[in-house]
Amino acid sequence: MAKMLEGAAQAANGVELNGVQLAPVVEQCAGCDRVRAFAEQEFCSSYPNPARKWAGGRCNFATHLKIAGIGGAKVNPLKASKRAAKGR
């Protein structure tokens, strides 16, 4: 379950944390480790308006999505053997 937002306060037009107005998370944020609960709603602990982050495609703060292509990079075997010989 999501952790609580420390120091957040209910304001007239939503939830405020350290003078910043927070907007509730969107459905794409489901499963993210940065989602926090306050007043029976969920908010992002890293960005005040999660819908805006997802507007351009993928949110760069999303912890529940894996980046494709990382870890499966091709390594030149000749360069790898030279690095191994140097002790790197």
**What order do the helices and strands follow?**
EEEEEEHH
**Rough outline:** elongated
Strand content bin: 15-25%
Q: Report the sheet with the most strands, covering strand number, pairing sense and barrel closure.
A: 3 strands, mixed
How many domains make up the coordinates? 1
Task: Kindly report the average pLDDT value.
Answer: 80
Strand order of the largest sheet: 1-5-6
Structural category is: alpha+beta
Record field, number of beta strands:
6
Total helical segments? 2
* Residue runs with pLDDT of under 50 for 5 or more positions: none
Radius of gyration (CA) equals 20 Å
Portion of residues within helices: 10-25%
Distance between the termini: 43 Å
